[in-house]
Design a protein that fits this description.
This protein has about 300 residues and is an alpha+beta fold. The protein has 10 helices and 19 strands.
Length: about 300
Amino acid sequence: MTVLPQDILRATFGERLHRNVRLAPYTSARIGGPADFLIDVRNADELSEVVIKLREINNPFIILGGGSNVLVSDKGVRGIVVLNRAKDVRFNAGDLPFVWCESGAILSSVAHRSAAQGLGGLEWAANVPGTIGGAVYGNAGAFGSDVAHNLIKADILDETGRNWWPLEKLAFGYRTSSLKTGNKQAVVLAAEFNLINLTKELAQLNIEQFSAKRKATQPPGASMGSMFKNPEGDHAGRLIDAAGLKGKRISSAEISLVHGNFFINTGETKAADVKALIELVQKTVKEDSGIDLELEIELIGEW
């Protein structure tokens, strides 16, 4: 696919279309070059409408939510970036409580808002970065739980239209789903999650305990989140530490001294520096332990 001329895109999207937008401010690592075009959407219906139009004119696009778990290239993104700010959240109380949330809602915020209402089940996610859409796409998880444990169904726009996908169709695995491995054209518009009735005090206590564990084991600062998937039966952070790579830097990209599976932007870091550090880690760990580390993050843009 090729990017259509600006006049055609402007005629289709009007003032919602923004040209040559730097993406670094929209990523958790604060890294990345410009998008040719950016469209800001504010609800699930707008997101659906924009995606359908982009497909009709056969113009390339990506969807960016919270900007975690991605590394945007220094050259940026050709085509259109759809910035997903669809953040409506609605709670359904009762004996079987659940929460419906649009895909641009921040996962950690939904967890905190649930706890404030005395609804539990998502406390594990109270410090997990990223949006609901990204969490469903990659089966985000922490502390032995993940999206697959809580999700009821997801509102998906695929090639047949807008449909509710049940859990089995999403085919969740470790940090993956059928959206990530198969139907990458499908877009998460919203999702529903099971909750449980708790007291506000107990839900908040659970969050505080998870937060304390995360603070003790994961570094602060601008990062993409976990860089590599944990190999079966082992941990990427341990392998990186064993290879003597904690604290290694390329320019201002640094492997955290707190946790080896986190790369920190300590200044004006370039995506190329992070990519070089990724390749160094993969090469060194392979030589040291014989294990191939697989990226958990995704590379976006021109490389």
